[in-house]
Amino acid sequence: MENYNPHDYPPFAVTVDLNIFTIKNGVLSILLVNRGEAPYEGHWALPGGFVGVNENSDAAAVRELEEETGVRSSDFNGHLEQLKTYSDPNRDPRMRVVSVAYVALAPNLPEPVAGDDAADARWWAVEDLFGEDAPRLAFDHATIITDALERVKAKLEYTTLALQFVTEPFTLNDLWRVYTTVWGFAPDLANFRRKVLSVPNFVSPTQDRSTGSPGPRPLLYVSGDAEIIYPPFTRHHE
Amino acid sequence: MENYNPHDYPPFAVTVDLNIFTIKNGVLSILLVNRGEAPYEGHWALPGGFVGVNENSDAAAVRELEEETGVRSSDFNGHLEQLKTYSDPNRDPRMRVVSVAYVALAPNLPEPVAGDDAADARWWAVEDLFGEDAPRLAFDHATIITDALERVKAKLEYTTLALQFVTEPFTLNDLWRVYTTVWGFAPDLANFRRKVLSVPNFVSPTQDRSTGSPGPRPLLYVSGDAEIIYPPFTRHHE
DNA sequence: GAAATAGTGTCTATAAGACAGTATAAA
DNA sequence: TTTATACTGTCTTATAGACACTATTTC
User: Fold this and answer.
1) Tens of pLDDT along chain B (238 residues)?
2) Chain B: nearest CA to A227, how far in angstroms?
């Protein structure tokens, strides 16, 4: 490293890949783009793109999020965090690409915008990605999505991240449905209410009640400032 | 991305940086190298190096671990995991470098081996890194070390990672001292014993007892296969 | 015997799990 | 009136925290 000649070290392309999750009609969904060209033409891939010369990977992720969802970053009120970096030498047959993967969560994102290299972009139900008629996934994106899903499930245990999936104001049942949807099983609703209300500043009640569905009018809440759930609200481990 | 001309995307160097922790004489310590050249000449830096053309970042981290500690990867019985990727455009003034940071834990590593670009390499007590007479740290490595420390502290709560800091056979007090050292406070020893012994396969007893210190001969244990502590053994959160 | 350490026991507070049961509103 | 939903309450069990106490060994 005496001289900084490019031949001293291998050059890499660096990209970001985004796992953008939302809950559409009670179904946990992820945004994927259909690749319009080789390699993996016709396969589905995570949205993403190259990190620019004058931005870090966080900024690149915000930029791509905006480009793919059409939501301006100033209007984006969800959550974005780095997941993990994937760097296998042959993960992209064209060249050496290191990808910094991100997880984004947001409520009710609009229908996606297809980008330059994408023939199509749409929300996929997560449960449809790994079953019988699963779409073909490009690159190592199946692995990335699996890791991202586990991250989201785990973070619901000890953070208030579930709030990112609901729009204010919401009912406690709305929040409970988030846990049910993401975890794939329903925690006891009565115990769930007790837990959420016992965490200081997880949610705060409003003066209003919802209407429409049969039954009593449920109280509406807004998000509180708490970020950590302590003690954690754990999933069952057998 | 129609053509793969290098001018279509910015070229990056990709490195790994290793947070190698061990407990020396009851003190949580991290391996740092003193930089022998600009930039940050004379500052202390995390050991690391470039990711090679035909390896992924995990392999590069294993290779660097071996080079810096002198421990062959086949003999390395500690723990290595990816932490986070750091990519600020100006984190290295020479060129655009993206660094994939790792955390390694091991018991009783030998004195380090200085590499090519390191004038010196030594173990630093973690508590000395951020105090009055703290060494000057190169690049964004102070940030990386802070993140790494928090990762280790957190993982002691819900994984059996503390086992990576002791050599077999060990006493329950040895293991308790790991928690005390890493967390910076002493959990109740009696409750600690109860907790460790209640987690199936966290540790398993041997037939032997230790000797030397005053008091009864403590039973010796070896590591079990469990990786998860459930329910977690939590630090206090006020 | 003093001091240090290993280990056991116990009481209490907290929280989780598993419900039962009641009230309210829409269709 | 039926049904879905929104709560409230309660009993049991699991676990954590605090700490007293005993036993064993070295010096």
Assistant:
1) 444 555 567 899 999 999 999 999 899 999 999 998 889 999 999 999 999 999 999 999 999 999 888 888 777 888 999 999 999 999 999 999 999 999 999 987 777 765 555 568 999 999 999 988 899 999 999 999 999 999 999 999 999 999 999 999 999 999 999 999 999 999 999 999 999 999 999 999 999 999 988 999 999 999 999 999 999 999 875 4
2) 13
Q: Which residues in B lie closer than 8 A to residue A151 (C-beta atoms)?
A: none
Which residue's CA shows the smallest distance to C1' of D20? B190
Q: Is A30 exposed, middle or buried (0-12, 13-18, 19+ CB in 10 A)?
A: buried
C-alpha–C-alpha distance, residues B10 and B97, integer Å: 11
Report pTM: 0.94
* Residue A58 token pair: 């966080």
Q: Residue B54 CB: number of other CB atoms within 10 A?
A: 10
DSSP for A75-102, please give it.
Answer: T--SEEEEEEEE--TTSSSSS-EEEEEE
